[in-house]
Amino acid sequence: MAHSLRTGTGARRAATQVVVLTAVAWLVAAVCVVLGLWQWNRGNVVISQAPATLPVVDVEQVVSAAADGGSAAAALSRDEVGRRVAVSGTVDPAVDLLVPGRALDGRAGSWALSLVRLGDGTGVPLVRGWVPEGTAAPAAPTGPVDLLGVVQPPEVSDVAPSTAALPEGQTWVVSAADLVNRVDYPVASAYVTAAEPVAAAGADATALRAVPPADPGESTRHLDWRNLAYAAQWWVFAGFALVLWRRALRDLRADRRAALAGDPERVLEGDPAGAAGAAPRQDRSPQPADGPGGRDVSSTR
Known about the structure:
This protein is of the alpha+beta class. The chain is built from four helices and eight strands; from the N terminus they run H-E-E-E-E-E-E-H-E-E-H-H.
């Protein structure tokens, strides 16, 4: 009975050790994983979000036409291309152009291009929409406009499908270098594609289709290799903690089996179950069958 009690006490003690070891090992592993994720996020830094996901701002905050005394415009940065903007100003009737050679959904056509003069006196080119080839574009609005659009970088002559001369009222590219010669105020080195077709009041705006931005922009990232290395280091620590935990459990099971088998050299420290349950050793050394002189003394009293 006493042996059974001691054996049960040893089993409970071993179970407690297993629970404590498991809790500590998995807690350490979880902490290391969390620290690794934190280091990873610090190492994988987003410098700027995709411009299309940013809030709408006034176009004046994105484009500028004030450089070089108004004859040239500041270049767009990478995180400004594709930015959604609000355009408030007055459409200049002096600029009402078609940009031919522009396909949409596999159909040939042209862009309807106007110039909006902003409150600061500068102008920003506006692609009002797309019309199929051979179709006249609806008239541009006159007076103030308020609209939403997407900022695009200026075009260069390389995108023009031809170098042939065009009739009056047409241009091959959307470029401030061209438009600034048509007006007497600075023009931004960028353009805006309207989110919805823009036409004069009373005109059939359904003849126009919105032009999707050619460049939606993208977010920029910077990798900090030192922080990424720290993240990998923390994850290695987590794996090491689990390896140690598994080995400790294996050793506990081995010690427990040794205790139950009665091997005193493998008994768990402080666990008397092995010693109590161990079978007594028997002396198996050979004993002489006869007494002195070879006489059988087994029956001697």
